[in-house]
Predict the 3D structure of the following.
Amino acid sequence: MAKKETKKQTEKEKIDKSKNLISLLKKHGAQVYDDLENGEFPKFIIPNRSISNIIYDKKLRQYVLGTNASLRSSRNSSQLRSFTQLLWLAFFANKLTHEKKSSTLRDIYYSSQAFAVDFEDQGESDNIIVDLEAILSQPRENFYVFPEERSSIFGDLTIEYTIPGYEGKTQNLSTHPDGYAIGPSMTSAELVDTSAELVIAIEKGGLFTRFVEEQVDKKFKSIIINTGGQAPRSTRTLLKRLHDELGLPVVILTDGDVYGEHIAMVIKSGSANAAHLKGLTVPDAKWMGVWATDIDKFKLPTIPMTESDIKRCYDLLKDPRYQEGLWKKELEVFIKIKRKAELEAFSKYGLNNITEKYLPIKLEESKSF
Amino acid sequence: MSSNEQFNQISPSEFFYRNRDLAGFSNPARSLYTAVRELVENALDACDHSGILPNIYMTIKAVDPEKPDPKQYILTVKDNGPGIPSKHVPLAFGTVLYGSKFGLKQARGMFGLGATMAILYGQITTNKAVKVKSNADGKTRFDFEMLLDIQKNKPIILKKQEIPSSEQGLSVSICLDGDYAKAGTKIRDYVYQTSLITPYATIAFDDPKGEKFHHKAIIRSMPPAPTIIAPHPYGIDVETIRRMLVDTHYQIPNIDDKMIEKVRTELGMSKKKFAYDEIIKKTEKKWKSLTRPVRVVISLMSFLEADFEKLQRIRIEDVDLRNNKLIYWDYSTSQTLVADMDVESHYYKQLANTVQGESLTHFLSKRFQRVGPTAALEFCKFAKFKPETRVGNMTDQELVKLSDALQQYGGFRSPDPTCLAPLGDGPLEKGIERRFEPDFMAVVQRTASAYSGFPFVIEMGIAYGGKIETRGTTVYRFANRIPLLYDEGSDVVLKVVKDTDWNRYKVNNDSAPLVIVSHICSTRIPYKTVGKENVADRPEIERELRLALQFLSRKLSGYMSKKGQTEMAKKRANLYSKYLPLIAEFCTELSGNKKEPNYKKMIKQETTLTNSDESIEEVEKNG
């Protein structure tokens, strides 16, 4: 079966990835070592992640970094500390990768305290982690650093764990109605089997629970994912794998406002924050709603937009990804009506109105774009 | 003046008694502080004006130490000044408004009221006599015990004693209601700050708790004493002009024995021949060489045809120039008599001149500083006065017009600063250096400037670090060598300091150990309140203060940036020795090496590099 082949392929890829990472880290370590040995101050070249250096790559259909880079030298006394922190992180990531131990952003902050590299707060250590991602062009998940999880998954999908201690163990994700947290063990697991024909990513936990109750997974042969607002990287990675490895189409359901529209866009084409990374986007994902035009069409109760909502609309209008089609059209309608509607708004017409009426209509509609 | 008579019913003592709040005697704490100030300042002024290096010893003792505050204290201030001749002592300390400080020059007190006020306050609250010990000649000391008769504004001497003593000086001891618990801090601050601005004085203070605050003189030379000068036209008002006009110089002199002797000497006559005819004869020959008072006396004699015996029996009532009559009162016959005056005689001219006063131009150029004959003429043109106008004939309206015009005319040169006695940058620098032992200091003395006719000089010093214990900017304010301690909020010096953007000078306003010493010298400090505690913000003074502070701040900034660089280098060296070992450790493990790289030489190199900052110091010195 084709699925088996992909499985083997990914396994091999993973080992390569891990080896590749370790040698990359070693290479950087050796460079620093040689510099010191020669009496020179070691330095890192870090791709510049500021807005001015972020370009939208139409071919890749995501944001990528430009060619600007900045130098972080240990000679410069104002950079010495952050240089040391960066090197420490490389050293620590090396350890994690060797031992295959996962760690969270917060863990990193606390782990650092044993080494006197003086992170002032977690914000600072988070930044250094992104610096290392940019230097290595590898997402932090590859060196076993994960964010705190808040998104979950439910549906007929069987996975096989690869993390130490669980290797070979399988799990079907439709056995627990609260869903399964999407964490390192989930994103690194093998996707073994599924009967689903669709992935529905939904912005809110409340609706996720409703969907499980209403058995949307069975009625629409779907895997339901709660993104918990803006989808975390691990969730985006999983979405990409569900799409790429299992060939499942991904649809996204959000609140009917500018932020909802952008949640869908980030899943589809990535965030500016992660422009230094590839493999986090699902360019074929479809935003199913709630559209600005749906508000009137489904007679949804609305609330007025705030000043900052409107400002966000105008900001996005300048974004290259919002220059055409549905994205541009809906954004303009939002600006015109200056009102927004949440997913819960459907409850006005009964609690199951969204799954019984809205979802089927929109799913049908989405096939055509 | 006759219309003022009903007010004179209240003696000055009584007036001050009723309004003692005005003079700073409002409550026991404040009163004790004010009394200290008045006595110490009197002592310092006396020494300054006699060119004696002051040595002041002050004690405050509780009458009954067991009692809680407020209670009675005995305040004694002893100096090594010139003392006061014994015949003046009762009046000097027993009357309000008796003093020697009239005239225009810089002094701490204005009229010498303060000491008497303190005595008065002591007497009111404790009913005890003031003890004054004065030794003016270095041979005899006169000890007085006196009370003040408030209604009559006269001293009542209770005791007087003569004691042989070689120690010149004055000691004043008063008993008064005070509150040292509350006033103690201010008094100690006052003594400390006074010693800061008077580095040539030794000031010792023994407080009621037995603590000793002794500040020794730091320098052995006094700043040059100020001179008394004529007023500047800008600072004048109608009342002052009126007083200048009624000067003895332009009045008909009193004919007493002294005057008669003066006439005789000037005419060069013997006592025998000193009779009317001889006098007139001699006068004809010597007229040109005679002084004005003598001429006036002789003119009177000529019209009255009287010798001195007669002249002493009459009183001149009026010189009626319109009718050319001389009206006088004869004591011997008790009647008013009239004598004719010959308009053509030079005697008439002399009398007319005297009564009418001088011409306006002459008056202006002789009686004011910075006004010459040309300036006086220019001014008359500006003010539309005839230059030959006789000042004695001017009406009240004309005097007001004159006074206003003097303020408005812009052509006078700025006031003469020789009446000022700034401390000088040397003594100021020494004072600051000794008191604070700072890491950095600078002082500046601005050239004299003037506001509304009063000359002033700004002196300022800035000190940083060292033994300065306060954090943030501490400002010591002085005016005419008096520390200003109360009412800081509204003072012009503080306003200027507050307006300064210290970040520009690389100083952290909140934490820097910074001291600013500001000294304003002027013949009249524009105090905002009667209590003499804060200086009003006259634009001219504010500008000078600002320039002084900017000058000093720039110097401080130079020091700070040098200091900053040294600190930065030190910090950098510290950083290297902290982080390079970590870097070595991490990269060794990351690269899979066994041995750490040889990085130690790099730390050494960096630390030696920091010494290259010395070149900056050189530049600093040259600048």
User: Anything to note?
Assistant: Residues 2-37 of chain A form the longest helix (36 residues). The interface with chain B takes residues 25-26, 28-30, 32-34, 36-37, 39, 41-42, 74, 77, 80-81, 83-84, 87-88, 90-91, 94, 115-117 of chain A (CB under 8 Å). The domain at 2-146 of chain A is CATH 1.10.10.10 (Arc Repressor Mutant, subunit A). The mean pLDDT of chain A is 87.
